[in-house]
Design goal:
Belongs to the EamA transporter family. The chain is mainly α. The protein has one domain. Helix content is 75%, strand content 2%. The chain contains 13 helices and 2 strands.
Length: 328
């Protein structure tokens, strides 16, 4: 069945069961849960991206990644019986979401990691919560209250505490100009993530999360495909790196398919301030995964930063619930 954006459809039994499970959870808190899980998948993808940049062409790897995500999400969309017919405005909004959250974010991140360190990248991406607030004000005149800005600043400060270490144990140094270029690429990625948040909240409520996610992944294929063709034609061919392609499959299944779906649903349940502050969880999960996988130790300053981020996010969610509208 094909539906328009304003056409109601009969909910499936699965949707009824899901609603019964989440009925007692305030929308803002449910959104926080979804955004938290989505940020965990993106943090895992952040680690996998380092493997991809060392072994595969960026555009080709990204095209395959989003193809995998689309092939996973499309059957789910078809089985849901909620295949949408988007308006022209919605298509433009989805294009903005895909440009920011896939092309700009991933190109900036993957290319930037080639010229800078993960620690420096984490410091630059800590500006994302602030960029979300600024983009919301710039593009849609969404004004945040003073306490929301205070909480966002606290979350951003917490990110700095998480990612800044006393010294780089690897002793790795990067040329000044090359390093500056890498940092600018990471800042571009942070801007793309902010745009993904801001424009994602502008999608009509009648457009389901699975439909928005599937469309975003499909648009991403179109955006990355020309660059992938150029890489294959002008390069040595398609690399046969097993670890690199396994990382691509992981990125397609977890951060892209699952993570984007969680984010698309959660971002429309919460305020701009909450969705912006939630991006501060990426370095938190990255640090925790480094402890669990690599065996690194968390320092006291890192724990303080994590606590500051979590407390800031909790206050924002609480204010959203108190205000009822989810817009503190």
């Amino acid at each position: 069945m094909v539906i328009g954006e304003s056409t109601g459809v009969r909910s499936s039994p699965g949707r009824h069961r899901l609603r019964s499970v989440t009925a007692g959870i305030p929308p803002a808190w449910l959104g926080i849960i979804e955004l938290t899980c989505g940020m965990a998948t993106i943090a895992a993808g952040f680690l996998a991206s380092d493997i991809i940049t060392e072994s595969l062409p960026v555009m080709l790897a990204s095209t395959v990644r989003y193809l995998i995500a689309t092939l996973v999400l499309l059957p789910v969309l078809l089985l849901s019986g909620r295949v949408p017919r988007f308006s022209r405005t919605t298509w433009w909004t989805l294009l903005a979401v895909a440009l920011g959250g896939t092309l700009i974010f991933n190109s900036g991140l993957l290319y930037g990691l080639r010229y800078t360190t993960i620690i420096e990248a984490g410091i630059v991406t800590s500006t994302t919560p602030l960029l979300v607030g600024l983009f919301g004000l710039l593009f849609f005149r969404e004004r945040l209250s003073g306490r929301s800005w205070l909480a966002i600043l606290a979350a951003t400060s917490g990110v700095f505490l998480v990612v800044v270490q006393p010294a780089d144990a690897s002793g790795e140094t990067v040329g000044t100009l090359v390093r500056l270029g890498g940092l600018l690429l990471i800042l571009m990625a942070a801007s793309g993530e902010a745009a993904f948040n801001v424009f994602g909240r502008r999608l009509p409520r009648s457009v389901s999360s699975i439909a928005a996610s599937t469309a975003t992944m499909a648009i991403a294929i179109v955006l990355f495909l020309p660059g992938a063709v150029v890489e294959v034609v002008t390069g040595p061919g398609i690399p046969a790196d097993r670890d690199g392609w396994l990382a691509v499959v992981f990125m397609g299944l977890i951060p892209s398919a699952l993570g984007v779906l969680l984010w698309a649903d959660g971002v429309r349940r919460v305020s701009l301030a909450v969705s912006g502050a939630a991006t501060a969880l990426i370095p938190v999960f990255t640090s925790l995964m480094a402890v669990a996988i690599v065996g690194e130790r968390l320092q006291a300053v890192t724990l303080i930063g994590i606590l500051l981020i979590v407390v800031s996010l909790a206050f924002l969610a609480r204010w959203s619930v108190q205000d009822g509208s989810g817009l503190p």
